[in-house]
Write a structure and sequence with these properties.
five-stranded mixed sheet; 20 helices; Ubiquitin-like (UB roll); Threonyl-tRNA Synthetase, Chain A, domain 2
């Protein structure tokens, strides 16, 4: 039999018969390793312990200590174990598909009776029984025709459709534990007992269409989460509990910021308090952009399809666009327009007006651009995922040799904005050339190097996302990590030489000839709607004082203090503090509770002593103790707190 050479992580090699499995390799090293092994990494690929190795390769044996492969296998095997449990409990249920997702897995089922929350506990109990059986996991590769006939005989059309969707050169793997069998690419653990029994939990039930096809019958989806140990599960559950407390939809209602309703799906009704946050943030961004030499523009909401065809969006993005047909002068054919889903083609139109010289570059153009994109109703989520939104959009028109400097300048700009808004923990990801792309490798080399050099010059490390750039250029993604560890991708910078070409943008170079500018698409916050939602959840509603819509409430303790309350309010407003009076005939404790629920940062109470001494009692949000201070001192303190950080 032919021999192959396997190289281990320590650099040593051993010869084996071709077709050796990782399970046999692990056993040849140590019986203890064979028991602990969960999978292998062969030539960088995740490999089942039963899959044969037919050629020379590098190999590493994975155990539960190896986080990435361990989590993938735990979650993948739990998906199978859950599907088996459901079918053992309800044999008429059809299993369809069950992938690993972030933090866990889901599996979709075709079942006449709906699952109930009580069913989850029953399924969990059955899953633990299966885990305790320690059934061996085995796999076979089947011929495609045999597999299709197998599932036809079993009356499982979903599996037949899955097989039809698998490329013809890909092996069809069948997996068993015990007598239960499923179609799966693998890999899987060696036995069900390798799944930790106390580090997972079933979470929820939802509806889902088979492969997103709304014309098909609704399936039932069960979600679960899983980790390497119970401590990680506990931390995750605590995070979810904290996230529920911080939910921007709940806090938005309590703070009177916004609401949404079915007559305008995916669009926000901003209330006075919410609109104050919005405009305060917008004013701040406007000042920052003016200081960064941006020129602000405003472009149309409705644009003829001809521009979207020229830009390429009509072909690539039409399903996400709101189409508007206009019957102009009762013409036989209606004009077809679209609400703009992005601002970039319109910005090129502004750039194209008048002759541009190399001396005009870089030209930094900004717009608080209102856009509309069709999002499926199931994807909408409060103000985080909407159909109508406003971007802090910007486009930098520059020459290729200006990319590095302009990118560094933008990273510095973005860094100060995030810091001012309370986000000091953020990271950069560089998405590089995809397989399908335009432009030569030499051009891509220069663009990717320019972005990388800019990150280094700005003093920031970056992670490379291989092949995830757009077809026309690489990009940077800026990801925030919030107070409870969740990541939010907000800022972006995208290099684009394609759109200037398509829309015939040019400038006159030093040589007197026409040249194409490079276009840097950039956003700092992303959309105001989504970023405000992130801000609310990051700060649990306790927004920075300068951003808070209701900064101070001055409340009377007795009615004799009403005039003094109004005097304090007037003095605060005179120094730029958003203040309001509460002179209702209610007890002070009631007023404090109500305004604390509304996340008012500062409550000033005024009674007989405060009137006589011209002081105020100060209670700050989140603090149980009050303090007494003079009116002059509180005015100075709150005036400074109310000043946006860029104006300090």
């Amino acid at each position: 039999m032919a021999q192959i050479s396997l190289t281990f992580p320590d650099g040593n090699s051993r010869d084996y018969d071709a077709g050796v499995t990782p399970a046999e390799v692990a056993a040849s090293i140590a019986s203890s390793l064979a028991k602990k092994a969960i999978s292998a990494t062969v030539n960088g690929q995740h490999w089942d312990m039963q899959w044969p190795i037919d050629a020379d390769a590098s190999i590493a044996i994975n155990t539960m200590k190896d986080q990435e492969p361990a989590l993938e296998l735990i979650r993948h095997d739990l998906a199978h174990i859950m599907a088996r449990a459901v079918q053992e409990l309800w044999p008429d249920t059809q299993v369809t598909i069950g992938p690993v997702i972030k933090d866990g897995w889901y599996y979709d089922f075709d079942r006449k009776e709906p699952f109930t929350p009580e069913d989850l506990a029953v399924i969990e109990k059955k899953m633990k029984e299966i885990i305790n059986k320690r059934d061996a996991v085995r796999t076979e590769v089947w011929d495609r025709d045999v597999a299709i006939q197998h599932y036809k005989d079993k009356g499982e059309p979903y599996k037949v459709e899955l097989i039809d969707a698998i490329p013809g050169d890909e092996p069809l793997r069948m997996y068993w534990h015990g007598d239960w069998q499923d179609l799966c690419r693998g890999p899987h653990l060696q036995n069900t007992g390798q799944v930790p029994g106390d580090s997972w939990k079933l979470m929820s039930i939802a509806g889902a269409y088979w492969r997103g096809d709304s014309d098909r019958a609704m399936l039932q989806r069960i979600y679960g989460v899983a980790f390497q140990n119970k401590e990680q599960l506990k931390a995750h559950m605590n995070m979810l509990e904290e996230a529920a407390k911080r939910d921007h939809r709940k806090l938005g209602k309590e703070m009177g910021l916004f609401h949404m309703q079915e007559e305008a799906p995916g669009q926000v009704f901003w209330h006075p308090n919410g609109w104050k946050v919005y405009t305060t943030l917008q004013d701040y961004m406007r000042r920052k952009q003016e200081a960064g030499d941006y020129v602000e523009v405003n472009t149309p909401q409705v644009v003829d399809r001809k521009l979207w065809e020229a830009s390429g969006h009509w072909d690539k993005y039409q399903e996400n666009m709101f189409i508007v047909e206009v019957d102009e002068d009762h013409a036989r054919e209606k004009a077809v327009n679209a609400l703009k889903p992005m601002n970039c083609p319109c910005h090129v139109q502004v750039f194209n007006q008048g002759l541009k010289s190399y001396r005009d570059l870089p030209l930094r153009m900004a717009e608080f651009g209102s856009c509309a994109r069709y999002e499926p109703s199931g994807a909408l989520h409060g103000i985080m995922r909407v159909r109508g939104f406003t971007q802090d959009d910007g486009h930098i028109f520059c020459s290729e040799d200006q990319i590095t400097d302009e990118t560094k300048t933008f990273i510095d700009f973005l860094s100060t904005v995030y810091s001012d808004l309370g986000f000091d923990n953020w990271s950069i990801k560089l998405s590089t050339r995809p397989e399908k792309r335009i432009g030569s490798d030499e051009v891509w080399d220069r663009m990717e190097e320019a972005l990388g050099d800019a990150c280094k010059a700005a003093g920031h490390d970056f992670e490379i996302l291989e092949g995830e750039g757009a077809f026309y250029g690489p990009k940077l993604e800026f990801t925030l990590t919030d107070a409870i560890g969740r990541e939010w991708q907000c800022g972006t910078l995208q290099v684009d030489s394609n759109l200037p070409e398509r829309l015939d943008a040019n400038y006159i170079g030093k040589d007197g000839e026409k040249h194409r500018p490079v276009m840097l698409h950039r956003a700092t916050l992303g959309s105001f709607e989504r970023f405000i939602g992130i801000l609310i959840e990051e700060h649990a509603g306790k927004l920075p004082f300068w951003l808070a819509p209701r900064q101070v409430v001055v409340a009377s303790i007795i009615s004799d203090a009403d005039d003094y309350v109004q005097e304090v309010v007037a003095a605060l407003r005179a120094v730029g503090v958003r203040a309001e009076a509460d002179i209702r005939n209610e007890k002070i404790n009631y007023k404090v509770r109500e305004h604390s629920l509304g996340k008012v940062p500062v409550i000033l109470a005024c009674g007989a002593r405060e009137v006589e001494e011209r002081t105020v009692s100060v209670r700050r949000l989140g603090e149980k103790q009050t303090s007494v201070t003079s009116m002059d001192a509180i005015l100075e303190d709150l005036q400074k707190s109310a000043t946006p950080p860029d104006l300090l």
